[in-house]
């Protein structure tokens, strides 16, 4: 079992930055891939980025390439999402998810956090 807790969301102006964290409990977390997803009001949950268990491979949605960077520290059981050059369209509830992946589809992940809100003002 893996339990995930996101943090780091908030309100930021367009062009600003935020760093989200996904802290995990469970001895096997270091063997899990992690995905970040986001969901804006009235929209479906969409893929943002995924990282393999080792951190050796990452996969980004086209909409965030060059602006977002994912990393992980398995010694701290934490995955980070550095978000730069934020845009109003990045406003959403951001979730981290873990499973054997990495997967680009939300349905493939069994473990989810509760989400952290990111709001980007214009």
Structural account:
With 122 residues, the protein is an all-beta fold. 0% of the residues lie in helices and 50% in strands. It has no helices and eleven strands. Strands 2, 4, 5, 6, 9, 10 and 11 form a seven-stranded mixed β-sheet that branches. A four-stranded antiparallel β-sheet has the order 1-3-8-7, with no helix packed on it. A hairpin with a 4-residue loop joins strand 7 (68-73) and strand 8 (78-83). The chain is globular, with a radius of gyration of 13 Å. The protein starts with a strand and ends with a strand.
In short:
This protein is mostly beta strands and 122 residues long. Helices cover 0% and strands 50% of the residues. The chain contains no helices and eleven strands.
Give a quick set of tags describing it.
122 residues; mainly beta; seven-stranded mixed β-sheet; four-stranded antiparallel β-sheet; 0% helix
- Mean pLDDT score: 96
Alpha-carbon distance between the two ends: 40 Å
Please provide the count of β strands. Answer: 11
Total helices: the number is 0
> Structural class from helices and strands?
mainly beta
The value of Rg in angstroms is: 13 Å
Give the amount of beta strand, in percent.
over 45%
Helix content: under 10%
What sequence of helices (H) and strands (E) makes up the elements? EEEEEEEEEEE
Which geometry do the CA atoms define?
globular
Low-confidence runs: none
**Major sheet details:** 7 strands, mixed
């Amino acid at each position: 079992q893996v339990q995930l807790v996101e943090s780091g969301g908030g309100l930021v102006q367009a062009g600003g930055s935020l760093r989200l964290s996904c802290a995990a409990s469970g001895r096997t977390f270091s063997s899990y891939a992690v995905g970040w997803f986001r969901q804006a009001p009235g929209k479906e949950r969409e893929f943002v980025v995924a990282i393999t268990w080792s951190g050796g491979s990452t996969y980004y949605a086209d909409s965030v390439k060059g602006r977002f960077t994912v990393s992980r520290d398995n010694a701290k059981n934490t995955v980070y999402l550095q978000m730069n050059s934020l845009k109003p369209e990045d406003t959403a509830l951001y979730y981290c998810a873990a499973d054997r992946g990495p997967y680009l589809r939300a349905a493939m992940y069994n473990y989810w956090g509760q989400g952290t809100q990111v709001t980007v003002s214009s």
